[in-house]
Amino acid sequence: MSGIRRVDGGIVTGRFTDHHVHLQLVDHALLAGSCLGRVIDLGGNPAWVAGVARHNSGDPRASRPVSVEPGSAAHDSPELWPVTIEYAGAFLTAPGGYPSDRSWAPAGSVREIADAAAAVAAVAELAALGASCIKVVAHSEAGPVLDDDSFRAVVASAKSRGLPVVAHAEGSGQAQRAARLGADRLAHAPFTERLAEDEIAEQAASVEWISTLAIHDDTHRAIAIDNVRRFADAGGTVLYGTDMGNGPTPVDLNPRELDALREAGIDGTRLLRALAPRDDDPHPLFLPDGDPAAAHPLTHPEA
Hints:
Layout lengths: L3 E4 L2 E4 L2 E6 L14 E6 L4 H10 L28 E4 L3 E3 L16 E3 L3 H13 L5 E6 L8 H13 L4 E6 L3 H7 L4 E2 L10 H10 L1 E3 L7 H16 L4 E2 L15 H9 L5 H7 L9 E4 L7 E2 L6
């Protein structure tokens, strides 16, 4: 892997990537002192997240974001540079679908898609706001889901703009459906059912999985870990992600997520690859004995 240098006693590497966060649900100012160098927001008010990302882009011309809530005060974002923020913008879901009825979902963070034409329009608007991916929801246990035509329209519109589609797939058969309809990545390693071996093979050949193992109760955690273990052994790509903001998650590297990944057999080089360290990071980390859980900012004696 590029961006990794072995030194006496450990490894020097760029700061890590969390592939699934929700910055509006946490104190995102804490990112500046974390081991994370890149985060991907997978569901928030598009204007708010885009504003925070622009402010922290390193471009001194970028203006501070303002609140998008009518009548509310201007919002100054903390300085997070050199943390790179990428984002999907709004959750794209069926009318009445998850998470449109959730109190935790920030205003403007959910876009209800009635048909294929609405899907195309939503993707175009999110792309214009600078989205680096598109988030689509297929949560059949919490309400209606997008029909196949609308889902395919999201995928086609996103891919025409070079944007990957990340699917929240929850409920029986939804992980396989998301892959079949063209999603590039699952926002959560499948956790509602144990996938069959042929399904694992199909997933490994076409879709990446974001881990988010530590957010689950014991039953769903065990299902997800078993799926991840077999998926990785089949050659599938597993990406570190925590669903930061889903409960009391740290705004930093999550030790519980690392433990769960190791339980699934993702360790050593596999774990570093899942963490996707930044290349040419101006504030690299030192990993004693190569252990990400012990990572801390590089100091001169370690260099």
